[in-house]
Automatic annotation (TrEMBL), chains A, B, C:
Gene: eci1
Pfam families: ECH_1
Principal location listed in the UniProt entry: mitochondrion
Keywords: Acetylation, Fatty acid metabolism, Isomerase, Lipid metabolism, Mitochondrion, Transit peptide
Organism field: Stegastes partitus (bicolor damselfish)
Record's protein name: Enoyl-CoA delta isomerase 1, mitochondrial
Function text: Key enzyme of fatty acid beta-oxidation. Able to isomerize both 3-cis (3Z) and 3-trans (3E) double bonds into the 2-trans (2E) form in a range of enoyl-CoA species, with a preference for (3Z)-enoyl-CoAs over (3E)-enoyl-CoAs. The catalytic efficiency of this enzyme is not affected by the fatty acyl chain length.
Amino acid sequence: MALRACLRGRSGFSGVLSQLSSCSSHGRVHVSPVVIAQRRNNSTSPRLQVDLDQGTGVAVMRLQNPPVNSLSLEFITDICINVEKLEMDKSCRGLIITSNQPKVFSAGLDILEMYGKSPERCGEFWRAVQEMWLKVYSSNMAVIAAINGSSPAGGCLLSMTCDYRIMADNPRYSIGLNETQLGIVAPFWFKDTMVNTVGFRTTEVALQLGLLYNPSDALKIGLVDQLVPEDQVLATATKTMTKWFAIPDHARQITKSMMRKPTIDKMTSNREADIKNFVSFITKDSIQKSLRMYLEMLKKRKA
Amino acid sequence: MALRACLRGRSGFSGVLSQLSSCSSHGRVHVSPVVIAQRRNNSTSPRLQVDLDQGTGVAVMRLQNPPVNSLSLEFITDICINVEKLEMDKSCRGLIITSNQPKVFSAGLDILEMYGKSPERCGEFWRAVQEMWLKVYSSNMAVIAAINGSSPAGGCLLSMTCDYRIMADNPRYSIGLNETQLGIVAPFWFKDTMVNTVGFRTTEVALQLGLLYNPSDALKIGLVDQLVPEDQVLATATKTMTKWFAIPDHARQITKSMMRKPTIDKMTSNREADIKNFVSFITKDSIQKSLRMYLEMLKKRKA
Amino acid sequence: MALRACLRGRSGFSGVLSQLSSCSSHGRVHVSPVVIAQRRNNSTSPRLQVDLDQGTGVAVMRLQNPPVNSLSLEFITDICINVEKLEMDKSCRGLIITSNQPKVFSAGLDILEMYGKSPERCGEFWRAVQEMWLKVYSSNMAVIAAINGSSPAGGCLLSMTCDYRIMADNPRYSIGLNETQLGIVAPFWFKDTMVNTVGFRTTEVALQLGLLYNPSDALKIGLVDQLVPEDQVLATATKTMTKWFAIPDHARQITKSMMRKPTIDKMTSNREADIKNFVSFITKDSIQKSLRMYLEMLKKRKA
């Protein structure tokens, strides 16, 4: 709990985590015994189930923030802490992220974190979103998204930060960065991550129109790498991990860092400006009004 | 006519237009009543027919510079002025560019503007070509190319500056940047625009070989987005516009600017050098000779 | 032999060759009579057969360093010298690179150059690898790879530096940058060249997993441009060259340089750091151990 408490305080948050981020491109992080003592292999918050198989070196992280794995500040912090723990655990070489909720991988950023909140709170939230991206996108582990449900907006971002994406072949599921449909805008590092995944032109259209793709179309544009029947998503992810483990970790990690470092550096060097920009945008009256209308629509849908 | 006269003088040209360009990433430009008074909704030069439907917010700009919509200095200036007017018109949210000439969308830059002209005139022409690209590529409007005929060289560039390209599925039509076939070279911002559209490798081969693609191949490489029967090009463009209008303008515009700004900034900061470079290249004896041979070949073909 | 002797001395090597490289973007290099006197059209080292057809302007360079065209320092130097000679020969407009060894185009960098060698020798070797890339990637000639066998690692790099790749449609052949499989890492300019060829995302996965593609998959991802039956690889390359010759050389060369210059500039300005980095990595005990194990595995396979 010490680590987590530390992470909650803003200075601790950015301090500890970004310190670790900065290590990530130089190979495995060697952790001190003090920190190791705090580690629990099968740690769980109520919102996450994390199981590390010490034999295979594969951890499975199950998102379980009902009803739709909305990425609240608390939930994102849980994810960051647990990814960080696994990162420091030498017995863990790979991470599979999947959902324990039916029909949805993650519905994306929690809109309630952006509606009617103080600028300070909005800034804290945004820093956490950045941190989650940083931790997963720069992870030394091989990270596979086992996308067993819909994955819009922030859910799509989380998927794209992984190394490989396996999606359930269910035409009712969709994935994409659909922010503009809500009147909000994906920031530059969401965009950069999508360009790295599906190229410039597809991103240009997808972001402007806020497109959500069914699995088959997502495969076609390269937004996911593989489709399998819904009940085989996790098993396929586990099996796929052996391909990634066949490569010596140091060679894979240096290569991954070489590919992603420019994108990560661009984000970290614009991090404070990006927070400022988000807070100033999201607290605008017109944007707050858009969000209120969207929330009311969601309420009506439920009723 | 005042605006247009102003645009003809070089200092006015770069002054007024680039001032407007610089606004384009900050949302809709608010125009003064004086300028509005000069606006005519269904303004036409002899070379352009522009119809704005105030109800739908869609303007259709028909290119009609016989016989093949060659982009002369005069014609380009007409295009710039009319795009600028629509940009300033709050009732206009989308622009469709199409051709009123049979079989051709636009044959590209008018070679007569590059052959036997003074360096000053060549420079003025090139500045106008840059301006047209800047105006359309950075437009706050959703811009759709309804490509109802062949679209080589500058015609392809104009198409690529739009947000979406619908082409007539007629195998006799072709599209591409074929400059090298004439012994001239597409400048870096033509190249950047093509890389943004079809990727690096396709651009590398296409530009070196001056490839023209039939509609089916253009669709395959992503140079156009959709093929429809010839008589449905404009109707499909109009219908497609509703998808773009479904997104709040501010979110779409910020996203578009985020995608294109690096490419636009690179061009504007190298604008004068690019003009100098063009003038020095095009006025070379060897290049002038190439162009003369090409013009003579065209004459023979006609005869 | 004077040129070659000169190239062997490190200062001469970087001097003469990089001087020529620096000319390559400004059109054909005009050579002095002294240098021309040293030129032999159908020059051959024991490891290379070079035939220039003065009529067509096409040179064919056959790699013949038995058994598998491993790229040793000597062999790479031969390649550099011969590419340089052809570059200076005004009668030569195009180069086809192919193999005279059965079943293999090139097995890539000679591991014996990296195992048990002094840091100085490793550095000399790496500078030569860089030089080969520079010479071919920035060549003013149209360069076609006639890939008539497997082409892993450095063999794939050599292929990717060409303008066009035609591969034998034999499912037993493979191509790719598989360095991580050996526990080593492709440097940034290998990566940049692959991104330029197949895009970011494909490169990201391919490099991390050290993927080798069969011809059919290589075609699908764009790593090669065309597949033909094995006995038609060279003939197709020769025929394809006529398409490249149909474009005026100056226009094609300026365009090629415009596309590749940023990648080349990035490499040349990081050249010394890249050598230092390679030497420090490859001389590590752990990496030397990996290479020894790999070499022992190869020996056992042969036996």
